């Protein structure tokens, strides 16, 4: 159940199941704080993927102020995504939105350097789903690492059966020449 209210500063704010998806006071100031708190995570990246689109004020500022090629917003709710697209329509900010059901379409943005960030007001009601997608997009699961590798040339010779094999401290030096571990090193930021 979605409804729209106005913030005290006059901006449109969406309420989902009784929870505001942006500040009731000033969503722009809140978005600026979010941007500054996360700047260290996306600095130097080609793409920023944000889990939780909220009212998209944070995505809008990210697209305006950060030196990134792509801003991708992902959410569980198609209704919220539609509302954000409609709100940003005339501004043409170049923000790409995907439903979490369309996560496979994000692959084209994973070939270069990227960051995955969270927008808490949006993810709080679906924390488990967003946590799984966060781990997946960072390659912290075998399925996620395979997904990411399919968009990167350096991963083509990987034997993914190694992903679940235990290693000992004695074998760590030998791993530096192994293609699996070299490619995995690319994912660690």
Task: State the gist of this model.
The chain has 8 helices and 7 strands.
Q: Mean of residue pLDDT?
A: 86
Helix tally?
A: 8
Computed over alpha carbons, the radius of gyration is 19 Å
Placed side by side, the strands forming the largest sheet appear as: 6-5-4-7
The proportion of residues forming helix, as a percent range, comes to 25-40%
Indicate the CATH architecture of the largest domain.
3-Layer(aba) Sandwich
- Quaternary structure state of the chains depicted: single chain
* Spatial gap, N to C terminus: 38 Å
- What sequence of helices (H) and strands (E) makes up the elements? EEEHEHEHEEHHHHH
Per CATH, the class of the largest domain reads: Alpha Beta
- What sort of overall outline do the alpha carbons produce when their principal axes are compared? elongated
| The CATH homology group name of the largest domain | Vaccinia Virus protein VP39
CATH topology value of the largest domain: Rossmann fold
> What class would the helix/strand composition place it in?
alpha/beta
Instruction: Kindly state the number of beta strands.
Output: 7
In the predicted model, the low-confidence regions spanning at least 5 consecutive residues are none
Give a quick account of the main beta sheet: strands, pairing sense, barrel closure: 4 strands, parallel
Q: What fraction of residues sit in β-strands?
A: 15-25%
């Amino acid at each position: 159940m979605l409804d729209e209210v106005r913030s005290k500063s006059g901006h449109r704010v969406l309420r989902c199941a009784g929870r505001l998806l942006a500040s009731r006071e000033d969503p722009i100031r809140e978005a600026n704080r979010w941007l500054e708190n996360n700047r260290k995570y996306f600095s130097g990246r080609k793409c920023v993927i944000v889990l939780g689109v909220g009212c998209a004020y944070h995505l809008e500022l990210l697209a305006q102020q950060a030196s990134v090629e792509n801003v991708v917003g992902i959410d569980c709710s198609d209704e919220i995504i539609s509302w954000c697209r409609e709100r940003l329509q005339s501004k043409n900010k170049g923000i790409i939105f995907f439903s979490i059901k369309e996560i496979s379409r994000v692959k084209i943005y994973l070939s270069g350097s990227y960051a995955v960030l969270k927008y808490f007001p949006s993810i709080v009601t679906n924390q488990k789903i967003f946590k799984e997608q966060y781990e997946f997009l960072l390659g912290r699961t075998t399925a996620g690492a395979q997904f990411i590798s399919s968009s990167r040339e350096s991963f083509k010779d990987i034997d993914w059966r190694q992903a679940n094999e235990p290693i000992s401290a004695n074998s760590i030096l030998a791993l530096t020449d192994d293609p699996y571990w070299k490619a995995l090193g690319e994912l660690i930021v």
